[in-house]
Amino acid sequence: MNEDIHVVAMPPILPGSADAAGQPATLGVLGGGQLGRMFVHAAQRLGYCTAVLDPDAHSPAGRVSHYHIQTAYDDPAGLAQLAQLCQAISTEFENVPAQALQTLALTRPVAPGAAVVGIAQNRIEEKAHFTACADVSGVSCAPYAVIETRAQLQAVQVGRADLLPGILKTARMGYDGKGQVRVRTAGELAAAWAELGGAACVLEKMLPLTAECSVLVARGWDGQVVSFAPQRNVHVEGILAVTHAYEGNMPPALAIRARDAAVAIAQHLGYVGVLCVEFFVVDDGSGHGALVVNEMAPRPHNSGHYTLDACDVSQFDLQVHALAGLPLPQPRQHSPAIMLNLLGEVWLDGNGQRQEPDWPAVLRLPGTHMHLYGKLQARAGRKMGHLTITGPDVASVKTVAQRAAFLLDLPGLNNI
Ligand code: ATP
Ligand code: MG
Q1: Residue 9, pLDDT score
Q2: Which residue's CA is the nearest one to ligand 1's atom 13?
């Protein structure tokens, strides 16, 4: 593969600089969730002004940004205002209309670009991409079949018994396990497809997972690539609960392969910005497990939040650097870390009434870094914040993480 094909000449947007009219260098982000908020924090720390486009007046990123444009993502006037304010624009949300990124890219550098975000938005295209670069990445995705029509459904029912039991997943708009139905028989498959409204789907074979991990890669306009070591992730009810980020979190040979695969996938896409690639570790009878690529997120990722407190450069710093055309420093992790997600349940008692968690007890624990996203309403399953626990060694980080999880009654306690 020629790695130079996707290199773009982009003069850096220097932090603290101003244009001829005195307007300070400004970076924009489409989407105002917690990922946008942490991007805004990182950009502001470097001296950039920031602009967020999100329709919600109370969006976590909008509330901390210099500018908050409150329109729909596809509103032409909102997009024009964002382009007018910003020297370059990113996204924090892969379900933003790819057309909006295309419109912005007519006048401004946009990273990641509409084409790659479009691929990550659609499991059918995403799997086709993973398959197309399997030779260079060295990993394949789970066996699967595309189901977009009744004829395809019937063909799978008759000819792909190897995919059952499996998981039927909508091609678009799935996250946190939403838009997925587990099926055991051809009859259940038909019922599940009807339940999902006959939408374009993939049926994936259910694999015997022994672990899940993800890798964060950042690639610049000039093709420079840096990456973090893989983090091991534990999901509870389809939502990330715990991330283990330390040496020895997974077999070293698998960690090297996952990292190399993620870099190859980013390069093959000509990706610019931070990309997160999720993998399964599957029991293949070999004793050390085989790696299977699951999906990718064209943005910083929940599993990379530990980089804020445990590394000298965070995933959000790298997103800012990549977007602005600044050099990408190779990150170094200085402390072992465990990240615990804080979902709305932490604020709800057994009757669904709001309660204030015992933060003083949690914050008394050594090495505890608390991040709340400024969301006003706690709802079950809603990502409200996270805790990262760092420490001098893995054993003490685990002890503190278990204590914090116990105090907050977090799921996944048995997996720390
Ligand atoms: P995300 O929040 O990461 O975007 P998602 O809704 O897009 O999640 P997936 O990552 O595809 O969905 O699946 C959610 C979880 O379901 C996985 O993390 C894994 O635990 C389980 N899972 C998904 N596909 C398979 C499979 N083929 N075999 C076994 N388990 C699977
Ligand atoms: Mg996933």
Answers
A1: 76
A2: 177
Residue keyed to tokens 């709340």? 372
Question: How many A from CA of 85 to the centre of ligand 2?
Answer: 34
In ligand 1, which atom is closest to the CA atom of 176? 2
The strand pair at 26-30 and 49-53 is best described as parallel
What's the gap in Å between 356 CA and the centre of ligand 1? 31
> What is the tens place of the pLDDT at every residue in 198-238?
999 999 999 999 999 999 999 999 999 999 999 999 999 88
Task: Give pLDDT, residue 176.
Answer: 65
Domain boundaries in the chain?
A: 4-121, 143-205, 209-415
Ligand 2 centroid, distance to 176 Cα (angstroms): 7
Q: Model pTM greater than 0.90?
A: yes
Q: Whole-angstrom Cα distance, residue 123 to residue 127?
A: 6
**Cα 320 to averaged position of ligand 1 atoms, centre (Å):** 28
pLDDT at 1: 44
Q: Does 339 have pLDDT greater than 80?
A: yes
Considering every ligand atom shown, identify the ligand nearest to the alpha carbon of residue 180 and give its number. Answer: 1
Ligand number with the minimum distance to the CA of 280: 1
Cα(11)–Cα(87) distance, integer angstroms: 11
CATH fold, domain 4-121, is: Rossmann fold (3.40.50)
Using the predicted structure, report yes or no on whether residue 159 has a pLDDT greater than 90.
yes
Cβ of residue 277 lying under 6 Å from some atom of ligand 1: no
Is any atom of ligand 1 closer than 6 Å to the C-beta of 14? no
pLDDT at 3 over 50: no
> 238 CA to middle of ligand 1, Å?
7
Q: CA-to-CA distance for 27 and 87, rounded, in angstroms?
A: 6
87 touches ligand 1 (CB under 6 Å)? no
Q: What's the CATH number for 143-205?
A: 3.30.1490.20
pLDDT tens digits for 252-305? 999 999 999 999 999 999 999 999 999 999 988 887 889 999 999 999 999 999
Overall CATH class of domain 209-415 = alpha beta
The CB of 138 under 6 Å from ligand 1? The reply is: no
